[in-house]
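Homework help board

Subject: predicted structure for assignment chain

Our instructor gave us this sequence and asked us to write out the predicted structure in token form, then describe one feature. I got the tokens but I'm not sure how to describe them. Can anyone check?
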Amino acid sequence: MNHIQKKKCRMSSAITVLFFLSISSANQQEMSLEGTDMSLEDLVNIKVKVASKSEESISDAPGVISVITQDQLKRFGGTTLGDVLKRVPSLLGTTVYMTDRSVIASRGDQVMPSSSHILFLINGRPVREVLEGGIKSEIYESFPVTVIDRIEVIRGPGSVLYGSQAFSAVINVVTKSPDINSVTVSGALGRDLHNHVSANINYKFGDFGMTFAGRYADKGGWNTDWRAPKDTIGGIDTVNVTIPDYGPGLYGELSFKGLRLMGSINQWSTQYYVPDYQKAKVGDATGRITWEKYFADIGYEHEFNEFYSFSVNATGTKSRLKTTEFPFSKRDAYEIIVEETNHFKPFENFNILLGGVLGYITGEEGNTLDEKIKFNEGHEQIHFSGYLQLDYRWDWCKAIGGVQLNKVKDFDVDFNPRAGLIFYPFDNVNIKTLYSTAYRAPSINELYLNHDAMRGQMVARLPEDGVKKQELKPEKVNTFDAGVNYQDSTVQFGLNGFYSKMDNLIIQDRDTTRYKIPTWDNIGQVTIFGLECEGKYYITREWLIEGSILYQESKDKQHSEGNAAPLPAFSAKGGLSYQGYGLTVSAFNSYWQALDKKFTAKMNKSTGNFNMLNLNCSYNFNYLIKSRVIKELSITFAADNLLDEEVWLPAWGLLDPSSRIPYNEGRTLYGGFKVTF
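My token output:
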């Protein structure tokens, strides 16, 4: 190990050690935090809705849950939602070779070449991509971060309440309420014209509320050489690429009493890479790829009395994808769902949640070179699910039980249970023992795609007599969690162990000894077990320290050597922040252990251990001028990848993942401003 590597490892270790040493004591005094009316105790013991669709404390919630609060968002910043999610315990940012270039993986689960095992919610409403089964690149890269109030994350299955895709995590973004009339404008400029601008408008008049937010970012300009096999005979081809990285994002919301209408538009463009034998006949399989996602929801909720309340929602999501080079894909798909949820409280400490969902999905994949060519057209699915969850709380224990029934067209009825016990042996301490299950229904492409580069299972198995026979099975996961947690007015700490068994995983079978053309099939069975530790500590009113550690092992039944996914067995995160007297200075570091040897790069740059250190600083001049008109007038400075570590990750999803593709460029410095009226 050279001098630079030793220095970086020492820095990562120092942050982790500092975090654990600081847990040893806490100031119990309740204090008001600068820039918010919430006390420190409220920020540490934050209420969440994601686990039970009703507000409850984290200690009572039936799940292993982390929350990024508004205070943490202000302190540590983040250009994109993906940047923020990479700070969440047990979540890691990664990538795949083509269609989902911005990926968040939970607890080492990146066995799929997409984010299809994570369900994304906006204010509790699902935002799904249904053609491939879970692409979220445009949301992670362009959703307006400035409109977010907090982010709730369930680590583990959530299908009992949310259905397909809630497989290894559920991410719920909660937007700000228009409680205070304000207009905010911010912007920053970095090297090579890296830039981002955003604006927010909040308006409240009686029972009417309005929130609008928009942002645009361009982090493109990373120029690098990428190497790929020249053809099936042999040789190497080097391609010089300037990687684009830009896109707009919009969010809007109107509310009146219990009625709310909200929607978002997100778009992102970047480079994709296919270092695969399939590209031999078409030249270099790399080019620009663009995603678009349109989301809308109208909902109404009403509390009739202390014993009964209900909500009803109609939600629509439209997803698009377009590539400029091979395989010349052009996609368009949408989902519409209607959901009704009932909350019953027949007597104190006893809660009943009962609801149902009816949904419709469809989509098509065409060719960017010829509008008449369709690889997938005219297919649709109707799906229904009903769910029931019960919980009862004694002084010393809480019991939770639930089940969801799912029926997807052409598939048998599927049941997913949930059960758990939460014990409270001492004040501020809880012990959670949880069992959760989940499923993911096959996507439209996994069933029906008929492309020269990839086929759906139904197309591959279509008999000569034309009778369609369903062969693909839904994916299933069973997860056990056991952990102990401590919370008081300034400290939150948790230690949790987990075990997940995944069956019927739908994998792109690219081994042509089975199929002439690569085909999706149920050929995966993976077990993941691990240990996760997280905590945060408000040392004083001004100082916050937080951190987390994840150790995980994933075993593939077909290939037992090494981890099944291209994620580190060990990773650690730590942040230190000061906020007071108008000044904010915060640093956050994420450390990755080197990947297993089977992912060693045979082409392109190899990345071993690395640290991703980010810095966020600002000064609010309104602390000095005390203006009644201007609520905030700040200058900002940020540094992404302060240690200047260029990161290349495996081209995950292909037959040979040893070819690396560019993921994160070197250091970028930003300077900017923020004004709120």
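Reply (TA_rk): Your tokens look well-formed. For the description, you could write something like this. Residues 3-676 form a domain with the Maltoporin; Chain A fold (CATH 2.40.170.20). That's the kind of observation they're looking for.
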